[in-house]
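Hey all, quick one. A colleague (J.T.) asked me to put the 4'-deoxy-4'-aminopyridoxal-5'-phosphate job into the tracker so the inputs and the structure tokens live in one place instead of scattered across chat threads. No bug as far as I know, just bookkeeping. Sequence used:
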Amino acid sequence: MARVFNFSAGPSMLPETVLKKAGAEILDYRGSGQSVMEMSHRSKEYEEIIHGAEALLREIMGVPANYKVLFLQGGASSQFAMVPLNLFAKSKRADFIHTGTWSGKAISEAKRYGAVRVVASSEDKNFSYIPATDKGIFDAQADYAHITTNNTIEGTRFRTLPDTGTVPLVADMSSNILSQVYDINKFGLIYAGAQKNIGPAGLTVVIIRQDLLGHQQDCTPTMFNYKIQAENGSMYNTPPCYAIYIAKLVFEWVKELGGVAAMEAVNSKKAALLYDFLDNSKLFKSPVATDARSLMNIPFSAPSDDLNGAFVKEADKAGMVNLKGHRSVGGMRASIYNAMPLAGVQKLVAFMAEFEKKNLK
Ligand code: PMP
């Protein structure tokens, strides 16, 4: 069976070596006589897996000792509620930079729990750029300020992080965690759904500065309380055991390839290949401002819906799947997360060149 190049925005490709290793261990995890899926989460073997996953993530992301790493469930969408429930501690005010569909959802949810202010937005141009901000626009008394570091649907990313002064910066990093080096000290809290650069859907990673723990609102459900999750080592209840095991294999893979800096170098090369082609194309164009281009999600389009439709169909036949763009942007979108090999992007660009030659009148 030939594997396809999957350009899906998520769930998305996992490294083949990770899948093979999981396959080899599926019936008998290292002589335990059990699959990781069948194991008690309180067993010695499983404790080694979850602790190993945390240690590896701390190492590859350079997570300082004064931050907790949590392995939760409920996706990034649950964090849209969990963040305000736990962080609206003093003024119950938060500032948001609105850069796309997902920040919009985070804003709507946070409004249920406190006062939310949109301090900058790129909605006027269909979120095709990242608005500039300076420190003065942020409310110094806000409990936190929120950004989406990479906008999965619109294909933009923050090149530089906003300066929020002493206000904790909270980042939805779902679609670019582990793709580029970040200084964790710049953030109060980072969250990410796993299904792009970490592993299977169902796992959600949270990295939180310890001083932000323990200020939850009274109504916060126990499962949504960061402090309780931290005190219980992410095992207040049964964690998503198998997803955490696969994440551990992915973290090992990142480490073996040279860590996040090495990932960033390959990701920059892959993205440059596609953007260079788009910049020189007479058929395809990118809707995104040059200085806001994402390394992970690259929307592009041909001049008509018919051509876009034909492109997606023909690419699929050629073993490049899930290239249809999100309905709010149209056209195509290539999501090229860490596990997309350079060969996948090379094949896509060659296919685009061929398609252009055939269809350019
Ligand atoms: N934020 C971003 C940036 C996303 O890309 C996504 C999912 N594509 C979400 C949040 C929602 O994630 P989940 O499905 O894990 O709730």
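Adding what we noticed when we looked at it: The pocket of 4'-deoxy-4'-aminopyridoxal-5'-phosphate is lined by residues 9-10, 75-77, 102, 148, 152, 172, 174-175, 193 (CB under 6 Å). The chain has two domains: 16-257, 259-359.
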